[in-house]
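Structure in, sequence out. Go:
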């Protein structure tokens, strides 16, 4: 049996199947990236709910694996060299999974790097900006009388959606006919922006029909539908 005892996180979230990849996550846009990828790849894994509403990502056990205190994180019992391996940051995990399987990313080096640039685009732009829209439109930021921050993030969100709209013109997915980690990295964020963050009208989402059609196609994929609900809420 695989021994994962070197990872303190397994003491708080014990592995029932230590021979499977261990996922520590919640159903946030960053969290579902990895569960969607795992479902698309068909890799055996075990999901553990890290309840961010109860600040569980700031516990010593979770911080021992992810010092940034954000979900998701993984422990792979079959890591590089066949040894158990822990990893945090959703973009890095997506790249790790594609390297492990050779799937969800083009084999051609140029197209591989083109895919990676769109993953980085999500990590450096879409994630931070959409998250700020959520704060100022749905959460405590609503109480701030000065609406200039909301205006700034709304305008920047529209610009970023426009970047995706331009990229998708004449394409089924970000990388043409190939569904890749580039799409996976963005789907949950766009879904949350117009759904959970209640910003569809705010950002004028209906002005971007190509993005809307891409989102609908992505959400219709069975693996995406499963991944959006993993790990199940307790």
């Amino acid at each position: 049996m695989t021994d994962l005892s070197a990872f303190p996180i397994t003491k708080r979230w014990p592995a029932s199947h230590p021979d499977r990849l261990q996922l520590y996550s919640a159903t946030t846009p960053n969290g579902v990236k990895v569960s969607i990828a795992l479902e698309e790849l068909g890799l055996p894994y075990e999901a553990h709910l890290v309840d961010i509403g109860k600040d569980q990502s700031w516990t010593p056990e979770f911080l021992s694996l992810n010092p940034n205190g954000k979900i998701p994180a993984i422990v792979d019992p079959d890591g590089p060299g066949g040894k158990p391996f822990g990893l945090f940051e959703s973009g890095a995990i997506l790249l790790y999974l594609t390297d492990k399987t050779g799937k969800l990313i083009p084999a051609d080096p140029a197209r591989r790097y083109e895919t990676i640039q769109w993953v980085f685009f999500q990590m450096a732009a879409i994630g931070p900006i959409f998250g700020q829209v959520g704060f100022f439109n749905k959460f405590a930021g609503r109480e701030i009388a000065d609406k200039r921050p909301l205006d700034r993030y709304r305008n920047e969100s529209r610009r970023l959606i426009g970047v995706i709209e331009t990229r998708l013109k004449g394409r089924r997915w970000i990388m043409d006919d190939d569904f890749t980690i580039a799409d996976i990295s963005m789907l949950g964020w766009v879904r949350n922006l117009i759904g959970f963050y209640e910003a569809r009208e705010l950002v004028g989402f209906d002005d971007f029909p190509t993005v809307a059609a891409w989102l609908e196609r992505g959400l219709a994929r069975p693996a995406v539908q499963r991944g959006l609900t993993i790990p199940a809420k307790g």
